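Cont'd.
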Amino acid sequence: MPLTALRTVSKPQNGVGAFILQCKRLDFHYCDWAGSSRGMNAFLKGTLPAFAKANPQIEITVSPRPTKHPVIRGHYINGREKAICVRKMDPNQILQKAELLRDASGEKLRREIRRPVKSLNESVRGIWSPFHAPIEEKRWKI
Amino acid sequence: MRRLPRLQQSIDLLLESTGYPHAPSTMCRTCRLRAASQARRAAFSTSAPRYKGSLTDRLRNRLFKKEDAPGTGNLAYGVAQPQAPEVEVDDSVPGEEAPREYANQYEPASTWDNLEWVGGKKSKRDRTDTREEVQWFMPRTKATKPNDIAAAVRRALVEVLSLQEAGVHFEALRLPTVSIDDLAAEVQYQFSTNGHDVRLKYPSNEVKSELLGSVILSIPNAAEVAGSESSDAAASLEFQSTSAVVHEPASGSGKTLPWKEVPLNSANKFAVGLQSDNVMYMRLILWQIIKRVMQLTGIRLADPKIQRCDTAGKLFHELLQRPKPTKLADALKIDNELTTLNNVTFSSRRVGPIDKERQVGRWKVIERELENRGLPVTMS
C-alpha cells in the first residue's frame, strides 16, 4: 500500500472554534491640567464604565501623565503596542479610537499591493501545468 | 612682547609623566599638571620678567618711555607716595606656595560626623526663630461627621442668639471650656413678636444662666467699647446697632421652630420694612453665626455659599458638602461604578518605569542586585 501523506484537516484560525481577542490591555493616560485632556477626562468619567463593562476580557488601566497629551495605548498578545493620541477629541471620538484599538490585531499596518486578496485556497482552478493543458488549446512548447 | 599660547609639546608630556615633586597630594591631577607646566614655563622662559607695579604706572612709563616717569605714585593729594621698587622679578612658581599652605591646614574628613548638616527637618527647625504661638482663627482639623457638624451649628445658634438676647457685644463671646452641646440641644427656637428675628426658649432659668455664664467672657461697657474701637467705624456701628435692637422687648410668639428652620439671612427678606441699622444688625448676626460655625467645625465657607444659607438647615447642608475634587483620580474614586469593575485599575500618580517593573515582579530582583553592588536604590 503506497504511503500517503497526511492531509491537513483544518488549520488553526482565530474565531473558527473560539475567538480570542488580540488586545489584552488598554492604558488610558490623561492630564488633570491640560485642556487637550478635557474630552478624555469626560470620557473617563462618563463612558469608560460602560466600555469596561462591555469588554471584561480587556484589562483597563487609567493613570495620569502630567503635562502631556492624552493617549490610549493598546497592548496585544503578540507583544506589540499601539498608541493613539486623542488630544482635543470629544468622548465619542475617543470611544471610536478605543474600539479601533480593541478590534486591532496588533500586527503592523502594511499595504498589500501585489496580493490584495488573502485566501487559504489561493486558486480555485489549481496550478497550471503545461503537460495537462488540452490538446486543442495552444500547448506550451518546452 | 606678549607671550603667545602654544600647544603642548612632547617634552611637556615627558615631564608630566615624571610628576611634579613639590605638588601636595591634596591637589587634584589637573591642578598638579597646571602647576608643573607653569613651573617649567618659568624655568625655560626667555621673555622679559613681569613688572609688579600698578597698571597706571606701567602705562605712564610706556608713554614717557622712561622708568621714572613724572607723576608716578599717588598725585591726588599733591604729594607723591613713596614708591615700591619698580621692578620686581616674580621668582615664585605660581600655584606652588598657596597649595602648600593650604595643605598644611587642610585635614580631610573621613566621616560626616563633625560636618555641618544642611537641609532636612532638623536644620529647618534649628534655623527657625522662636516666634510667639499664633492663635489660629480656625482649627486645622475639619469636622466630617454629620452629628458633629449639626452640634456645632446648634451651638453657634445658641451662643450668638443668647448674646443677642442678653444685649452683650459679640466681642464678649468666648470659647467655652466645657462642652455646651447638651445644653444647646435643650434650647428651642421661636419667632419674636415682631416676626423679624428668632428668640431662644430656655427649658429653665438655670440652663439660661449656665449657658450665658459659659458663653460670655465679660460684659464690656458701651463707652469703653466705643472708645477702644473708635478707629474701627464698622465695629462701632455694630455695637450701636446691637444696643439699638437688643433693647427691644424679647418675647416669643409661642410657636417653636425646628433648629433647621431657624432663619439666618432674614435681613434680605425683611429689608423692605426695616431700617438700615436693623438690616445691618441681622447681617451681623448671620456673620457671627457663620464665623462661630467655622471656628467650631474648621470648615471654611465661601461667600456665595454663605449667601445661599437662608436657614440653619441650608447652612448644615452646605457644611456637609465636600469640596469638589481637583484631581480626576479622586473623582473616579468617589464614583463607585469604576471601582466595582474588576478589569479596571486606576492610579492617582504617573506610572513610571519602576512601577512597570514592579507590576511584572522584576523590581525586587533589580533592587536586590543594586543593594548587592552598593548602588543607590531610587525608590524604596
